[in-house]
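Appendix B, example 12.
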Amino acid sequence: MKRLRALALACGLACSAAPAAAQECGTIVIPTGIGISGGADITSFNPLLANSLYNTAAAGMMFQGLIWVSGRTLQIDWSRSLASSITTPDNGQTYDVKLRPWHWSDGVPVTTEDVAYTFSLIKSLGPSYAGYGAGGMPDIVQSFTVISPSEFRVVLKHPVNPQWYIFNGLALLLPLPKHAWSKYTLDEIFQNQSQPGFFQVVDGPLRPERLDIGLDLIMTPNPNWEGPPLHFSRLVWKFVEGDGAALQQVESGDLDLANAPMDLWKAVQNLPGIRLINLPPGLSFHEIQLNLRNTDVAFFRDVRVRQAMADAIDQQEMIALIDHGQGEEIRSPVPPNPPTYLPPAMRAGQYPVEYDPQKALALLQEAGFTRGPDGIMQKNGVRLSFTYLSLSGGAVSAQTTVMLQSYLAKIGIEVKVRQIEFNQLVALLNNPHSDWEAAGLGETVGVYPSGEELFGTGAFANAGGYSDPKMDQLIAESTDKPGLQGLYDYATYASEQQPVIFMPVGSTSILARARVQGVENFVDPAYNYYPDALYCTESAAP
């Protein structure tokens, strides 16, 4: 239930060193979405076009980020960043960036010309850019100047909150190999986004060797990787559908790691030769995306209907029954942990919406709805009924759907269900003219969780077409004004508005075969992957 369109996954330049007894693992086989969510195919390697977590994970292994922000501290770790320093001499409008010495896999130095090339591609792609609008990019930039091979300057059209722009804007300017790509047209770059041969010049730890859609992606180490050593010769991302299939494959040895299926939680506690590793919650939330453009479900445009849906859902019960207590209630676009950016009232557990079915009924009645003969709310002959797109193949998705139907039925809302594969859902959501009504999925948020890419009018990730002048104003204030009050006001209003219906998110646990170690450091709450963290012990190496 995850997608991501703006937050680039980064691989650390300096992860924790493996123990002295670490051995080479040979081939490590893992499913896509490991440590995050259920799996789906990888279909693109281009970080500027990656519109899902699975694509971004692959791209993040291939291309180094300009900055690396720890998902545990939400702070920049300069030892793991391609930038060596970022300064703003005028406190928010001008940004001077210096690069550390680094090389592409073919030995060519990474320079600021590569960063400038990335920026030119972003501008040329426009709304097709997967991070369009995040960090104000690219429209917020007045000028981009290469000062030297190791230093560049970005001047914005107006001063902004420096922390916001560094985390959400500058972070998007990861260098791409100008010397290898500039001979291609933009259309050729787009057409080659899933071709491994196009992506042999990388500066990250891995590069793609072979992609078989529906089967797997094989990645091999960058022979000129300048970061910490890797302890495997191949990393295979296997495309596995269904939690049960992944469990069977990790038990049989076909997979080295797999996400623990929550519907089999008791069964996976003591599997022979397999460790269960619990991860902290990620910077994400689940949601019911609503198509506010579709006139057949125009009732979603009434904030009282959206609030009623949120008030009808017992998130505590969902976490207890589906996630076995391993999860968090989510009622705003700012995840509660770490509470760095959570408004003070929300830290105290006070949200504009909460589980209250009686309040939900009152809101629907206030909006003019009454129960029809079949118990479904109606108004002017229109029933409160919609079709919900539920991702196929996962027990958690199926359980969530059943409970959602039950909660909403109690307040007179009918939910009809249609199952759909992940990549089909992404295609629907990316088409502003498609007639879907509602969909269950997940969103990751940036390490500075402002809303310009999620709920701003016309934003790339705003698939439902939500538009509200006050929301646009609050988003602008959260990005332009120094301090956190603007972000607090945005989060509070978004919780009140429910532009999507915010849903609880479960923690992820990983099943790991005994031979592979370092798994607890392989992925962090910001969904940064560290391939160099994986190693095998002498007794477990093949």
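The domain at 284-506 is CATH 3.10.105.10 (Dipeptide-binding Protein; domain 3). The radius of gyration is 23 Å.
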